[in-house]
Amino acid sequence: MAIVTLTNVSRHYPAPTPGGDSVVAVDNVTLDIEKGDVFGIIGYSGAGKSTLVRLINALEPASSGTITVDGVDITALKERELRGVRRGIGMIFQQFNLFAGKSVHANIAYPLKLAGWSKADIAQRVTELLAFVGLSDKAKAYPEQLSGGQKQRVGIARALATRPAILLADEATSALDPQTTHEVLELLKRVNEEQGVTIVVITHEMDVIQTLATKVAVMEHGRVIEQGPVFEVFSAPKHPASQRFVGTVIKGVPSPAETAALAARHTGRLVTFSFRDGDAAQARVFLDLAAAGLDFELVYGGINDIRGRAFGNLTLAIRGDDATIDRTLAVIGERTSVTDLDEQGAR
Question: Highest taxon of the source (predicted)?
Fold first, then answer.
């Protein structure tokens, strides 16, 4: 069941100069975010990702279309009614947005005070959250005394304070180093799996999506150009922008120029094998080549993993007589995608 639905949603801003055209930040977007999903929205700067988040929590109004959050059409609500909807949506930010003059305890307690919780209930909830994010010993500390990762943990605890059904994470790991990013992503996984919170992740980082998300939408120029399960979109991207993103973490079939450079450095016949779902398929290719008496070396590509499912491309320089290579590639090609770069005329 969808917990967030956007139907033909657009967001326009007034023209920056008199007589100019309006700026289209989000352009006719339709999305369903299912309850319990970790839904990633990825795109380069200016793609419209952050605007889309502000539309979901009604910090900005849609220019057209409808947005339904937990069964409520928020585009039809007045500001007073929207406050209740926002209480069911937590948000964490790239720069943490903590109150510098408040302790960790007070930062987490702040939304609970606004919601009218009693002091006793606030104290109990803050204690629970500090334990959950691993900061029980930091209740009296102030933000300036914390590392970036600790600040983001406080931000996550604060966002969860009122027990929201939805958590929006807008570039939440962009300011963190790789190790701290991994720790924060593992914490967000626990938020989703242990507390059942639906998470919407806005990012330009492929690693974040493949580590955390279950589904993904790729945005470009305000439009959603591709969407679906993360493995399907990343292992077989259809749109050029999606292909560029995948190319930042794993190399595909070499371009003609790359193939020419490889041919200059390596002897043998250049062949790319494309894999989906299974390290065993890779091992079988190597075994078949070796059994045929062929010599080979890996010269390009790589394999990636998304939640235990492998995909990628490996280009090998294969040495031996052409007839044996042809026969072996024919056998391998019955179960694995094979691109013979010699036959493509790339060399």
Answer: Bacteria
